[in-house]
Amino acid sequence: MKSAKIELHLHLDGSLNIRWAYDKAIAKNVIDPNTSFEEFYKILYGKNIHHSAESIKKFELVCDVLQDREDLFEATYDLGKRLNDLDVIYAEIRFASQQHCKNGLTQAEALKAVIDGAAKAMEDMPIRIGIINCLMHKGDSASFNQKENLETIEASKLYFGKGLVGLDLAGFENNCEFSEYAPLFEIARKEGIPYTIHAGEMGIGSHILEALAMKPNRIGHGIDCIQDESYIEALLAADMPLEVCVSSNIKTTGNYSAHPIRYMLERGLKVTVNTDNMIFAKSNLVNEHMQLKMLGISEETLRKSTYDSLEAAFCDQETKRYLKEKLDSIYNS
User: Fold this and answer.
1) Residues 165/315, Cβ–Cβ less than 8 Å
2) Residue 190 contacts by C-beta under 8 Å, 6 or more apart in sequence?
3) N or C end: fewer C-beta atoms under 10 angstroms in the chain?
4) What is the DSSP code string of 195-214?
5) What is the pLDDT of residue 6?
6) C-alpha dihedral, 101 to 105 to 110 to 116, nearest 10°
7) Tens of pLDDT along 111-154?
8) Cβ atoms of 211 and 243 closer than 8 Å
């Protein structure tokens, strides 16, 4: 291994092997059987993945091929293998158990299938994996799917420390006030479950302040912090790690140089580098690092970001010590 990388923000449904997903979609009648692979490819690689409520529906397509235990297990194992091949030594793979119950699975059963797939990957390969379960923004208020979100927490309580490492709040963040989800995170804090929150990704920087008020351990994306100095100051004061996903954020333009990551690093924000969705962003962590180097971000800065990722990871201290030794060995060789 010549390099070592850590991935903290990666969605299972957005990172499937696309050929595998196509074959499953055909076999399960998720798509018209006459759909060609090229047509399926174009659907998944369409623009505006993260910037409208309509675009979020593309996740429903890939979720529909992940409604059985065997498929959840296989998809997680395969993703672990691909990450290991990319020299990722630790990954936190997130998914929303409530999105995988259409064929009769309970949320706990869906979560167990993903945890088992990750466990098998760790048995067969040196990679370490933690699972994050996502609460979801849906409808025009948190009450729309409060029942499902409460079930997500209950399922996560069963497996916290047994493969599950944390919670998230994902979906279309512009639906309603973040404060409506605060009671859910109060439960998580009482249970000692760490959590991250998607915020400041879809054009409204004030969501960062709303997310900070819910005392997260990390914030997903956070790039809209550049809209106002007060947002940056609040992140600095909280020493808040940000899960930044450059290729995903610039999906609509392809303009890496326009992404604010350089400014965020210059301001001293704790930036971690991640992929978000490997198929939707057409990227992986090797590509993310390569693109950032082409923007003039130094190897030293990227190494610091990797260590910051390790510090911000939700894994236990024993795993962190193991990973730090691995990073030190590679970087000092």
Assistant:
1) yes
2) none
3) C
4) EEEEESSSS-THHHHHHHTT
5) 98
6) -150
7) 999 999 999 999 999 999 999 999 999 888 899 999 999 999 99
8) no
**Closest C-alpha among 135, 217, 132, 148 to residue 178:** 135
Give the residues across from 138 on adjacent strands. none
List, in order, residues 6 or more apart from 74 with CB less than 8 Å away: 20, 117
pLDDT digits (tens, 9 = 90+) for 75-84: 999 999 999 9
Q: How confident is the model at residue 108 (pLDDT cuts 50, 70, 90)?
A: very high
Q: How large is the average pLDDT for residues 43-63?
A: 68
Q: Is the pLDDT of residue 35 over 70?
A: yes
> CA 37 to CA 169: how far, in whole Å?
32
Check pLDDT > 70 for residue 158: yes
Which residues make Cβ contacts (< 8 Å) with residue 245, sequence separation at least 6?
9, 221, 274, 275, 276, 281, 288
Laid out side by side, the sheet with 5-11 consists of 5-11, 88-95, 128-137, 164-171, 195-199, 218-221, 241-244, 270-273
Tokens representing 115? 């945890």
Q: Is residue 219 within a helix (H) or strand (E), and if so which, with residue range? A: strand 218-221
Q: What is the DSSP letter of 258?
A: G
- Rounded Cα distance between 16 and 62, Å, is 8
Instruction: Kindly report the pTM of this predicted structure.
Output: 0.95
Report the distance separating Cα 309 and Cα 303, nearest Å: 10
- Quote the CA–CA distance of 8 and 188 in Å, as a whole number: 19
Torsion sign (Cα): 125, 280, 216, 113:
negative
Which helix (H) or strand (E) segment holds residue 158: the answer is: helix 146-159
Residue 9, SS3? strand
Q: Which CATH number is associated with domain 5-325?
A: 3.20.20.140
Distance between CA atoms of residues 75 and 65, nearest Å:
10
Residue type, 105: L
pLDDT in tens, 186-211: 999 999 999 999 998 888 999 999 99
Q: What is the mean pLDDT of residues 20-29?
A: 96
